Amino acid sequence: MTVRALLFDLDGTMLDTDPIHEAVFRDLLAPRGIAVDRAFYMEAIHGRLNVDFFAEYLPDEPDPQGLSERKEAEFRDRLPRPYPAAPGAARLIREAAARGTPMAVVTNAMRLNAEAMLEAIGLADAFATIVVGEECARAKPHPAPYLAACDALRVAPGDAVAFEDSPSGLASAAAAGCRVVGVRSALTDAALRAAGAHLTIRDFEDPGLDQLLERTPT
Asked: Where, by residue number, does the polypeptide cross the bilayer (predicted)?
């Protein structure tokens, strides 16, 4: 295929933030009687909008949006700066920018978080287009965020490659019609493919990307 655009999820894809999110949720939910361990985080929280999780597990919460904002503010406070990007991510993005390949971030994180993460990994200047799920008609796993990104970049979804790590993100990109690459930061090859990935990679240094993106191996 001809790759005309690159679309990137953030959390767990461009940087490994799951341990930070898990710890914040653990501290936030313990007083509310919900114990968060790795298995619960991956099963119930990973890749979802906070308000969707709260609606299911805290249906009596009087201010779910306020609780979500409190949680994300705590995440930003705990996010180290600088923070390492996923191996190979910066190289891929800088090379794509040099070639003039359109790129966008497509995330279920709130905009303040997206900007904080990009700043932390030193790529704040790399993306003119940031699509935020809660600002779309529907968030991931609905295809709306990826369709919005393709529309903003003026490319057909079938000409775009999307990088994702969560079932909701993979489903969103696949439903939009993108070519989907699953990043094995938390899930196995089988789990990522079952959720919609056409290809999976260890990280952005994985040689499997070279043929897809028609680049010279290092």
From this structure: none
Q: Average pLDDT for residues 8-36, to the nearest whole number? A: 97
pTM above 0.90, yes or no: yes
**Beta 160-164 vs 130-132: how paired, if at all?**
unpaired
pLDDT in tens, 122-166: 999 999 999 999 999 999 999 999 999 999 999 999 999 999 999
Phi and psi torsions of 125, nearest 5°: -90, 0
CATH number of the domain at 5-16+84-213, please?
3.40.50.1000
Q: Which residue's structure tokens are 């993108």?
A: 178
CATH 1.10.3470 fits 18-78, yes or no: no
Helices 167-176/144-153 angle, 10° precision: 50
CATH 3.40.50.1000 range(s) for the chain read: 5-16+84-213
